[in-house]
């Protein structure tokens, strides 16, 4: 049985997962060079645009992996527990990023 707070985070995560899947699908549909051979300048622009879109897709894929990891932790009962010190992650940290795996102190220690 999950707590009401965890249920709320789960709903947020599932909503974001659905949104990301839509964005990734849209990007995949647009990651096509086509078979046409245009001017060198146009091909250069298409190549640059492809690189930019691929970078965005990679960022979305990374976020999706984080979300799915958080959903898996919820499923297994480990959500909200710091993976470093095993203490409870503060609600404010999870509000800021529901995929957080570290408590505030461990995040600060990691930055130093």
From TrEMBL:
Signal peptide: none annotated. The lineage of its organism: Bacteria, Candidatus Joergenseniibacteriota. A zinc finger (dksA C4-type) spans 82-106. Coiled coil: none annotated. This is Transcriptional regulator, TraR/DksA family.
